[in-house]
From TrEMBL:
It holds the Pfam family HEAT_2. One of its GO terms (molecular function) is oxidoreductase activity. This is HEAT repeat domain-containing protein. InterPro entries: ARM-like (IPR011989), ARM-type_fold (IPR016024). Gene3D superfamilies: Leucine-rich Repeat Variant (1.25.10.10). Transmembrane segments: none annotated.
Length: 404
């Protein structure tokens, strides 16, 4: 039987020491030679936890942080070095080196995070991160340096001019988005910041940055008269569907009591060219305005008439969740099961019937009929699955045997 590396049997102390040594050597061998990187990583973690006082293990893990072929092992090695050997004078230089030189961005990001978290008391660390945020050749290092500056040092990490410079000059969209969040978080009272974010929400070349800028405008400046019209305009005119989706979500969440917002969301539910935006509008109407006259009828219409299956599916799910007590809803779900052109919608109809209307007298016969006669194999399989999961009586068990 293989020797355990996690426990030692009772016995003579000399025997225990010998077994412990063999266990240590076995773990080191696994951390280097095992083909599976998960096993190598677990062996390395066990070494770090159980032998943190061993100088040889420090040297061993330091080597694996550079030499292992898999990024997850190198990343774990760096994290363990920062955890157990923070005070060793060789650990900090190694992390600084790996933050720039490792070939994998996950390892580089991890190294930056460990530097910020464990050596934040050193004045040179925020200075180093500011330099990386501006000048590092790797976009992942620039972005994580900005994140960590904000997380660990807040407003004191940088000047306004430094952050606005990153908002304007940073080439990577993710790093620009982080800079936008930081400038809004710490300098929202500065007059120039509002205009900067409006410019980014309007003109940034990447939709992710425009999206973040729009969200920050809605959160930080909701009382300004020009913000609501600006977001409404973006909800219609931005050429990227995700921005329009974010815009209507911000309008609904921040200005739902404004009289024109309900009609605006209804209009987007009907007229936006993208199915995702129409689907978001359906969900907003159902969750925020379920009692308003016309909401139920509009979502009923979208469940039948929208050109995209995802909107019809979403509308049907919202009807089942919010208006399941209305007889019209049950009728619609049955109709979609039988008549919708898309099998995803019909599968959802089967699932909603079994879940919401399990006790209705017409549900079981209809699902059995679908299981027997449906031509689409995926809808048929969904019906069989609902019968298996939802009805345990002997008649159903006999019925199910037909499909074995």
């Amino acid at each position: 039987m293989p020797e355990s590396v996690t426990s030692l049997p009772p016995g003579d102390p000399d025997d225990k020491e010998a077994i412990s040594f063999r266990s240590l050597e076995l773990l080191k061998a696994r951390a280097v030679r095992e083909k599976d990187h998960v096993v190598r990583r677990e062996a390395l973690l066990t070494l770090a936890i159980n032998y943190s006082e061993n100088e040889d293990i420090f040297e061993f893990i330091k080597e694996r942080a550079v030499e292992d072929s898999h990024y997850s092992v190198r990343k774990a090695a760096l994290q363990e070095l920062a955890r157990f050997w923070k005070g060793n004078p060789e650990t900090l230089p190694l992390l600084r080196e790996r933050a720039i030189e490792d070939c994998n961005y996950e390892v580089r990001r991890a190294a930056v995070k460990e530097l910020a978290e464990n050596w934040k008391h050193l004045p040179e660390i925020p200075e180093l991160l500011r330099d990386w945020a501006e000048n590092a050749g790797d976009k992942f290092v620039r972005s994580v340096a900005l994140q960590e500056l904000s997380r660990c040092w807040g407003k004191s990490c940088c000047s306004l001019s430094f952050i606005t410079d990153r908002v304007v000059k940073e080439k990577d969209s993710f790093a620009r988005a982080i800079a936008v969040q930081n400038v809004a978080k710490y300098w929202s009272t500065e007059p120039a910041v509002l205009q900067l974010l409006m410019d980014k929400a309007l003109d940034d070349e990447h939709y992710a940055v425009r999206s973040v800028a729009l969200q920050e405008l809605a959160e930080k400046w909701p009382s300004r008269e020009d913000i609501l019209p600006f977001i409404k305009e973006r909800a219609v005119k931005d050429d990227h569907y995700s921005i329009r989706g974010v815009a209507i979500q911000e309008l609904a969440n921040g200005w739902r009591n404004e009289p024109e917002i309900l009609d605006f969301i209804r209009d987007r539910c009907i007229h936006d060219e993208d199915n995702m935006v129409r689907g978001i509008a359906v969900s907003l109407l159902a969750s925020l305005w379920p009692e308003e006259p016309g909401t139920f009828e509009l979502i009923m219409d979208k469940a039948v008439s929208d050109e995209h299956y995802s909107v019809r599916k979403n509308a049907m799910e919202e009807l089942a969740k919010t208006w399941h007590k209305k007889p019209e809803t049950l009728h619609l779900v049955k109709d979609r099961l039988l008549n919708d052109s898309d099998n995803f919608v019909r599968i959802t109809a089967v699932q909603e019937l079994a879940k919401i209307w399990h006790a209705d007298s017409g549900t079981l016969p209809l699902i059995k009929e679908i299981a027997l006669k449906e031509k689409d194999e995926f809808v048929r399989d969904a019906a069989v699955r609902e019968l298996i999961d939802g009805w345990q009586d002997e008649d159903i068990k006999k019925f199910i045997k037909k499909f074995a």
